[in-house]
Design goal:
Elements: H1 9-45, H2 57-60, E1 62-67, E2 72-77, H3 80-87, E3 89-92, E4 100-103, E5 123-127, E6 133-137, E7 144-149, E8 151-154, H4 159-187
């Protein structure tokens, strides 16, 4: 008669029953860490490398959240203009206005923000030989202050996509370590 004895089977079954709960806790912590890592990179990119800092509101509007139930992390912004920054697109003058007023260096502060609207400057409209429309300041210098255009095309900057790409290796490494640590805790 052949007799088979499985030593430690009950112990292994007990460990296997606890595995999903321990893995859920470990993965939840890892999703939090990974999401914060991508968020930190997005804030860094919005601090100069991709978006020039002016008031800091764009950078401050970048948020993160984690859905613990589905183990999903999200990094993004609810600011309307962030979609334009991420994907690019066309910006057009809104009626009744016919033109966008794009401030030139002479009308900007050191931070790159317009010192005021076109109405706050004394000047006149001027069309260049090639047909471009400008608003120049009154006086002997007559420096161009604003360029007037019906629409502009903004190139996509892919801030969030680049944040994810820049964080990918760190996130992958930490995720693999979290799974290995959890498995060694369970099956030690």
């Amino acid at each position: 008669m052949l007799r088979i004895q499985a030593k430690g089977l009950n112990d292994t079954i007990s460990k296997m029953e606890k595995a999903p709960e321990k893995m859920q806790v470990s993965l939840s912590k890892n999703i939090h860490w990974s999401t914060m890592r991508v968020h930190r990179e997005a804030v860094f990119l919005a601090s100069g490398p991709i978006i020039k800092v002016r008031s800091g509101k764009t950078r401050a509007g970048i948020n993160w959240e984690v859905d613990e139930r589905n183990l999903v992390g999200r990094v993004g912004s609810k600011q309307i203009h962030m979609r334009q920054i991420e994907y690019g697109g066309r910006i057009s003058a809104k009626p009744p206005r016919r033109f966008l007023t794009i401030p030139l260096d002479a009308a900007k502060t050191a931070a790159g923000v317009a010192r005021g609207s076109i109405r706050e400057f004394e000047g006149y409209f001027f069309r260049s030989k090639d047909g471009r429309l400008f608003y120049k300041e009154k006086g002997p210098s007559g420096r161009p202050l604003f360029r007037l255009k019906a629409r502009v095309e903004q190139k996509p900057k892919h801030l969030f996509k680049k944040a994810m790409e820049n964080s990918r290796e760190d996130v992958k490494r930490e995720s693999e370590l979290a799974v290995k640590r959890t498995l060694s805790e369970i099956f030690g």
